[in-house]
Write a structure and sequence with these properties.
8-stranded parallel beta sheet, alpha/beta, 10 helices, binds zinc ion, about 260 residues, 8 strands, about 40% helix, TIM Barrel
Length: about 260
């Protein structure tokens, strides 16, 4: 069985054919799907979807792009209230994104710290989005006492040094479909870290793996990501899938059946 730790299945891109997408992922043996929020309304949508399906779980979060707009106290109060829903298994996605200069960095830092504190107070893991901001990311995590937290670097995009730094802080690395792209640094990371530090995701509807690159991504393709990891590490797909399922279940404290 396969695991998609980060899939925006509740986004409007799936409104016209969500049932078919779900039918395909079931057929491809994806048995756990985690749907993250990026602001109050999408977090609410994630929870609504998770409430309809046993195998879907929700995250409540504030994406750095959203955090860069005006965020007020009401937003944090609303997110904190939503985070108490029974199907919420983590706070995410949260983090830093310096790729686009128009997103205010100070506002991102404030929101990120606020959400880390929420996760800590609820004893929930964090799902972190980090793009071109590794130095500040690691700095803020150490200031906010990372040893009291656990979580994942979603859609991991760093090199092997950054991978080691994240793992030493107690974070797992979630590998997306970009592992199949020609110039990706991810195969080196996948090869060198421990199998127990790796997770799989699609980040659908974005970042479809080869051979579907450029099209809408969907959760069934997490199988391609898992197969890539197995090939790179020279292990069987079953061994990779089993380890990833175990790590995901433990980290998010999912029910074991
Ligand atoms: Zn992200
Ligand atoms: Zn995402």
């Amino acid at each position: 069985m396969f695991v998609d730790t980060h899939c925006h299945l509740s986004f409007p891109e799936f409104d016209h054919d969500r049932q078919e997408v779900i039918a395909r992922l079931i057929e491809e043996q994806i048995r756990i799907l985690i749907d993250p929020g990026v602001d109050v309304s999408t977090s609410r949508k994630s929870i609504e979807l998770a409430n309809k399906f046993d195998f879907i779980y929700a995250n409540v979060g504030l994406h750095p792009h959203e955090a860069a707009h005006t965020v007020n106290k009401n937003v944090y109060d609303d997110l904190a209230a939503l985070a108490h829903s029974p199907k919420v298994v983590a706070i995410g996605e949260i983090g830093l994104d310096y790729h686009y200069p128009e997103y205010n960095r100070t506002a991102q830092h404030e929101a990120f710290r606020e959400m880390l504190r929420l996760a800590k107070s609820l004893d929930l893991p964090v799902v972190i989005h980090c793009r071109d901001a590794w130095e500040d990311m690691l700095h803020i995590l150490s200031e906010e006492n990372h040893s009291a937290m656990r979580g994942i670097m979603h859609c991991f995009s760093g090199d092997t040094d950054i991978a080691d730094a994240c793992i030493q802080m107690g974070f797992k690395l979630s590998i997306p479909g970009t592992v199949t792209y020609k110039r990706s640094l991810l195969p080196d990371v996948v090869r060198t870290v421990s199998l127990d530090d790796l997770l799989t995701e699609t980040d659908a509807p974005y970042l479809a793996p080869v051979p579907c690159r450029g099209k809408r991504n969907e959760p069934a393709y997490v199988r391609i990501v898992t197969e890539s990891i197995a090939r790179i590490r020279e292990i069987s797909v079953e061994e990779a899938a089993e380890a990833i399922t175990r790590t995901t279940t433990e980290l998010f404290r999912l029910p074991t059946s």
